[in-house]
Amino acid sequence: MRWMSVGDNPIRVTASHRLHQLPLVLAGPMLRRTEADAVTVWVALQHACVVTLQVYATQDQGNQLDRLMLSGTRETIAVGQHLHIVAVTAIPVADDNPVSHHLTPDSLYAYDLRFSPLQTDERQDIPTDLTISDLTLLEAIQTPFSGETSISYFQHQLPTFALPPSDLNQLNIVHGSCRKPHGSGRDALIFLDQLLERNSHDPNARPHQVFLTGDQIYGDDVADPWLWLLTDIGDTVLGWQEQLPLDHESTILAHQYPPGQRSELAETQAGLTAGLKNKPEYAKSHLLSFSEYCATYLLAWSPVLHPPTLPNQPPDLLKGRSRSWRQEVKALRQFTQQLWRVRRALANTPTYTVFDDHDISDDWYLNQAWCLRVLGKPLGRRVVQNGLQAYALFQGWGNTPDQFVAGQAGETLLQAIAHWSATQGKDVKADQTIASLLGLPPQNPHTGLPQFTRDGETLILDRDRGALDWHYTVRGDRHEVIVLDTRTWRGYPAERSPKAPPMLLSPTAFERQLQTPLQLTDQLNQSGAQIELTLVIAPTNLVHMRAIDWVQQLNLKQGNVYNNDVGDAWNLHKGALAALLATLFEQRDRIVVLSGDIHYGYATRLNYWSQTPSAMAPSKPPKTPHVLAQLTSSAFKNAEWKTQIVHTKLKAIAPEPSQYWLGWQSPLLEQLPDAPIAKQIHSFWRNPEKVWTAALQNSPDPPDWFYRLDWIKRQPAQLAFEVTFPPEKSQQGWLPRLLQPMSWLWRNRWLQEGPEVVGHNNLGVVRFQWSESKTVIQDLYWLAPWHPNQVITSRFEVPLTLDPSPTLNHK
């Protein structure tokens, strides 16, 4: 018997003993890509089924079901013996006029799922043709505090949704990132459920789209009690244990390296860098096996597989970690208590995702050195493949379901995964197919290192031509959202150190991920569409706070690039940022960028002026105006003491100055996407004339472009609503009680009204004022430190007016 099942404590009963008591649905339903003529719902089941999705129109503010609009059927994929996943897509039902069954804005729709177990399933006692309404009764979650809950806001017990409205003034987009189960504070993603509950009957007031912009899971930074569950649950649902390669001859099993004892293995055998920050505890419980990555998603999105409680004391072999174990258990209990809210919210809102590094491992593909270090080791390559394989199943499939239909690369990947799992990971050909379709680079047969290929002035990881794309575009009635893959398409400088900051998009990626979708939208508009607004999801930020830039520049000079993710910000590679802005503004005059990653929320406004073809005379400054708003929401659950300090009025001591950049187009590259020569000037004078003069002292020509960046002040916090949490037992010792008065001073509302950022766990809601004077508004929802049940909203308003170019003279 393995160590996780030793003892009489109920929590130590293995998942295999609990599995037969659990319902059919282990996670989901999660509403994914949702369009007028296609709706996709993702679900993870305990048994193989044929799943039918039916979408209905509604009446009476969503209370009454109306006619059937869309329908679709798909069989689950056998990821493991007790894990069967499907993302089923419904399309308009057969009719003389199928257009009449297209969904429209400003209406409420409901959906139902029907589960028909396959005859080949080993269990014959499963009822046939279960539906969500049946499962609501079977799966109702009994919680000591909230009682019985379901996944619906209506008496008909079905999830509902609305398409983005026809009026941009009513569009509500939710975004956020960085959700670590044992991270500090409450999970801000539960606020989405509160917003839906309050507005579920109004198709134009409820959230219309959710974008999870990275770090949906943490593969590297895992709590010991969490891993204690994951290894057992993962092996149980897969039904076998993966042989992880150390080299070409020896293998290990994940459970041989229990919680808290994986730092050395992760660093030396896998080459992973999570523990290279002089904090090996970051990788002490790093995920290794495919089953552990799968189990992480199941536990992050659903309460079904969670045990009733977690023990306050660790197993015998972890007795030396009792204090950290208890702290992590407390955070995990908070996370689990409200998980039913997250499950319900994601069932009722179209949800889109994209990865950042922690979805696989810290610093994933950060620079060329990381790629060589990790992908050159068998265990490192296996961990990356396992994480990306789980991402494809749990996230990627729902983002781009068209890639996973018959005859497409995604369907081939699903079949290969099913075959690989059925052979308990022994089918080498299936394994190679998986790696190829996931986009992992081939290995040099002589060195074992990953292969790169040339892309303009950069090197990119080589990949199979048939590999899946992780970037995608979502188009609504009046807006489009372009979701970037800034991880697997990085351009590493060919002539610089392997640790040099990369272009987050290589030249080819600029063309595929930005230029092509922007041009397609223009073609659609010419054909009658009316898309007026472009949003871009960039998981990592265009700019940071000045202090972070200084630290990263210092780390870069010292070679400590893994300390603070040196290379993940766009502005560390000036040419890449210049190319990004030029590419966006070549076809759009207004852009809204949504980002996450950095554990605090804020808003900036970037005014950009470029030369027009008729204004190339040396004596004339840039003329054509453009504007970009960057809106950041982070973290859902991973606030840090540093972010909580800059959240306060202490940040007013060092406000963020305006930044002025001027750039000259590189003569070496003839067309976009390119890497222009850029010169950055941080202006402390706040005087564009002085910036201009200083920049042109050694240049005979005026710049090709010029921009000014300003930080938006956050407005005074307003009470949004109240939320009630289960009571907790106080376990404070004498020292916390002694410091209680000081704690009260810290939680004081006046102090918490900082000027620029929200540093507590937060969820972002983006709205628009779309008239002649255009404005984008970001409301960040966070829990008030001065009142544990009050949810506060801080507003950032960013004008999208096109400002004329400043009057500047070329000296």
Outline the secondary-structure elements.
Layout: H1 15-18, E1 25-35, E2 38-45, E3 49-59, E4 64-75, E5 77-80, E6 83-92, E7 109-117, E8 130-131, H2 132-139, E9 141-143, E10 147-149, E11 160-161, E12 173-176, H3 190-199, E13 209-212, H4 224-238, E14 244-245, E15 251-252, H5 263-269, H6 290-301, H7 322-337, H8 339-347, E16 351-353, H9 368-375, H10 378-399, H11 409-422, H12 428-438, E17 452-455, E18 458-461, E19 472-475, E20 479-483, E21 492-493, H13 507-526, E22 533-537, H14 546-558, H15 574-587, E23 590-595, E24 602-610, E25 624-632, H16 641-646, E26 659-664, E27 677-682, H17 688-695, E28 705-711, E29 718-722, H18 734-738, H19 740-746, H20 749-752, E30 762-770, E31 774-783, E32 790-799
Parallel strand pairs: 12-13, 13-16, 20-22, 22-23, 23-25
Antiparallel strand pairs: 1-2, 2-6, 3-4, 3-7, 4-6, 5-6, 7-8, 7-11, 9-10, 12-30, 14-15, 17-18, 18-21, 19-20, 24-25, 24-28, 26-27, 26-28, 29-32, 30-31, 31-32
